[in-house]
Amino acid sequence: MPLFARLLRARGLDDDEAVRRFCTPRLTDLHDPDLLPGIGAAVARLACAVRNRESIVIYGDYDVDGIAASAILYHVIKAVAPETAIRIYIPHRLEEGYGLNTEALLQLRREGASLVISVDCGVTAHEPARAAREAGLDLIITDHHATPAAGEPLPEAVAVVHPRLPGSVYPFGELCGAGVAFKLAWAFAAHWCGSKRVGKSIQQVLLDMLPLAALATITDVVPLVDENRTIVSYGLRWIRDTKIPGLRALIEAADLMDADIDSHKVGFVLGPRLNACGRMGHADDAVRLLTDAAPDEARRIAKRLTALNRERQQTERRITEQATRMAEDACMTGDDCRMIVLAHESWHAGVVGIACSRLVDRFSRPVILMHRQGEVCKGSARSIEGYSIHDALRATASYLTSFGGHDAAAGLTLPAENLEAFTAELTKHANARIDVEQLTPGLWIDCDAEIDELEIETVNRIGALSPFGRDNPRPAVCIRGATLAESPKQIGANGKHLTLSLRGDGGRWLRLIWFSAGSFAADLAKGMRVDAVIEPKINNFNGRTSVEGIVSDVRVCQP
């Protein structure tokens, strides 16, 4: 069986229609938004508010998902009814925290708002929803985070739009917040036009929102399968031709106008710039950038976000290094402690989430890092595959003031006096549910391959499996029993990386790069037979095109 066919089979793609939908998604593959729970009531109330010229507020989260979701809904409503009195409210990460805030909702009501639409938050906000209702403020909640526990009611709202509500018939439950907002915008436009076939101008505005939805889908690390692939595939295809001046300015500031913008560049170059202002201060600049900023203003904002992102990177490195030392000193990195929980007065609450991810990568266990300010600890959690951090927080909720999120990531607040007991109870919970084997990083291998199979045409074809991300990693193959054609060479600053040359039994050789593996140079020598797990890629250099591999791991074959 050809290599590409083996890769498809390894990913469960073994019939023609599944392969077509995965490799060449179409816009018609997007699911009907009318299937989403609560969307009918949400659309009807929104249309009524627009028709009656009510004051509408979109209440979003301060990350890329919340900002993009807010911008999508804003642009579509404005396109349908330009005179609509609508604005976006994003809470301050440090002063107000995540999600719907009772005082903020009451203040919006005092300022004349009659309808608030939450995006990327609100599905567990019972008290804020009750306060809004009592104040005469209508609330539509759109969200994708973990829903209330079984048997618990939903917040009191005109509508709750969420793909995974009990009884939902929506075919796909893994949309991000911007994906849900896009579906609401689509359903609203169809309702307003009186037909599922909206006018060409409105249709174009909806299509123009796909790059924003793609940004959010990638940066929120939801699975890149099903309709998320359609959103991301088309969003990336059209992102450099965006009609949103702010998004174009962001791409220019990142020096990507002439680049192939893929999921990696979105996740590690564009996304962090948008996240930076919400992490280091307030997300208003990012909202302005993706909504009403004219080209000159957009370039100024994009430049500020780039500078803020550099500051964020420095802060992140400092927290990560300090947290690593603290975890090791507290004996939280061994097999008998399968959870890291730390707090410190100097840590920036807006950056600890990224530092959490760094420690998860290093120690392969769930991590919670918090900023300790006086009598309150507030921070973020990240988890590993197979362990729901949201369920863990729910099980220890008696120690917490508040929490929210999903299986892989969450936010939390607790009294500092509870920190020691919370840590002990959460560690006990993790130790009982995480096997020791899960503390060792996994290595994804799609299938075995021979060097002779890695031809340019085949490796180019593998690109059809992109965009890559959660639940769809870059294809990795294992080359077994190949010979090191020469001793490895250390490259990069201080010889941090290695280059290897592998020769197959047929005589063909393959150049490999093994990042951050310079210390293994002395363990490998010319003539050794090895197994190597690699990600095949195309290298274009000096007008020459060739296949090479990025190494995930190497094992020396025993004689």
Number of helices: 18
Look at the structure and give the CATH class of the domain at 29-199.
Alpha Beta
**Fraction of helical residues:** 25-40%
Mean pLDDT: 94
End-to-end distance = 30 Å
Q: pLDDT below 50 for ≥5 consecutive residues: which ranges?
A: none
Describe the biggest sheet?
5 strands, parallel
Record the strand order, biggest sheet: 2-1-3-4-5
Tell me the radius of gyration: 25 Å
CATH topology of the domain at 29-199: inorganic pyrophosphatase (n-terminal core)
Level-2 CATH architecture of the domain at 29-199: Alpha-Beta Complex
Say what oligomer this is: single chain
Which band does the percent of strand residues land in?
Answer: 15-25%
Number of DSSP strands?
17
What structural category characterises the helix and strand content? alpha/beta
Large-scale geometry: globular
